[in-house]
Amino acid sequence: MISKTMEEALNKQINEEMFSAYLYLSMAAYFEEIGLKGFSNWMRVQYQEETFHAMKMYDYLLSRGGSVKLHAIAEPQKEWNSPLEVFKATLEHEKHITKCINDLVDIAEKERDRATFNFLQWYIDEQVEEEANDEEIIRKLELIKDNPNALFMLDRELASRVFNE
Ligand code: OFO
């Protein structure tokens, strides 16, 4: 049976993941509203990924005999000034999530909870990928600057992203 401390920390993280989903869904709407459907698709897939992150933790907590407590999801930002600003905000958010996951690993170690420690390794790897994806898009957007043709080419590229766990 999972400890109360670990249970509380995982419930907090489920909320962080659900907020991430909400934030990216808000960004998807922003992109669609400014006519960038490919960017919007990329963010919709990110929304699906974050929901998956939350549900994976939800299922794990239940499988360990823990109790799921869903906290209120905060309202995400709605407006940004440019695609570059969105992706910079995305990277900052992912760095925050990486810190949350590292803190969870510390708690699992302190609680001597080996199962949760192992479970969290998947999230550690996932965060490396998430930050790398954002950095790659930021680099492209910095090269693109104000070139609309290049921006539309990137939009076409991002339109092909599909969700896979
Ligand atoms: Fe974006 O990795 Fe979960 O929150």
UniProtKB/TrEMBL annotation:
PROSITE patterns: FERRITIN_LIKE. It is an enzyme of class 1 (oxidoreductase). Residues 1-145 form the Ferritin-like diiron domain. It comes from the Bacteria. InterPro entries: Ferritin, Ferritin-like, Ferritin-like_diiron, Ferritin-like_SF, Ferritin_DPS_dom, Ferritin_prok. Its EC number is 1.16.3.2. Coiled coil: none annotated. Keywords: Cytoplasm, Iron, Iron storage, Metal-binding, Oxidoreductase. The keyword GTP-binding does not apply. It catalyses: 4 Fe(2+) + O2 + 6 H2O = 4 iron(III) oxide-hydroxide + 12 H(+). It is found in: Cytoplasm. Iron-storage protein. PANTHER family: BACTERIAL NON-HEME FERRITIN, FERRITIN. Belongs to the ferritin family. Prokaryotic subfamily. This is Ferritin. It comes from Marinitoga aeolica.
